[in-house]
Amino acid sequence: MLNMSSTPGEELTARSRILRAAVRRFAADGMAAPLRAVAADAGVSAGLIIHHFGSRDGLREACDAHVLAVARENKAPVLGGGGGAAAMLTQLAQVEGYAPVVGYVLRRLQAGGPLATQLVDGFVGDAVEYLRQGEAAGVVRPSRYPEARARVLTEQALGALLLQLPAQQEHLDLDELPAWLRAYSERIVGPLLEVYTEPLLTDRSLLDSYVESRTGHTPEP
């Protein structure tokens, strides 16, 4: 058990251990998991969690920052695979040790609230950037609405994933999550790639009418 008089190096180690334990516990049992359970998992006192993070919300905010950092580090390989944010989560979960991060994201979205909104906004901001990079590389078409497009793709992907989420039950088995996400990915990536590369509509008349109604100008071909 670590105490409040730890050296700076020991405090950093304790903080990291608490953060890892919190991500895993919140993923498994939901965002209402008690701090005492996180403390037991990390081998520290509940008081030390408050010392480092200030409150339960402070701990959750630190977990949010951690999982967004992991997502940013792993977003680039996803662009060519289809599925956006959902594909990224699937990819991460298949890498050893990342299932708790993915489970945490799903639980945070499931819980809702302001911090969930911040987390989605983080994913959207990253999507704007990697779609911009795709445009520069010539593999993604430019958009009239780059930020709105990124948000629609992100929200659709995460919303569809939440509808199928195996964590509708009280406890999420993190050991089974990678296989579940792999099966989910295999089911959706083909249809998604078809929609992205062979548009559902056979002509652009609806888009042209919409753009003209909003701008008063006939769109260029």
Automatic annotation (TrEMBL):
One of its GO terms (molecular function) is DNA-binding transcription factor activity. Residues 12-71 form the HTH tetR-type domain. Residues 34-53 bind DNA. PROSITE patterns: HTH_TETR_2. Pfam families: TetR_C_25, TetR_N. Keywords: DNA-binding. This is Transcriptional regulator, TetR family. The lineage of its organism: Bacteria, Bacillati, Actinomycetota, Actinomycetes, Micrococcales.
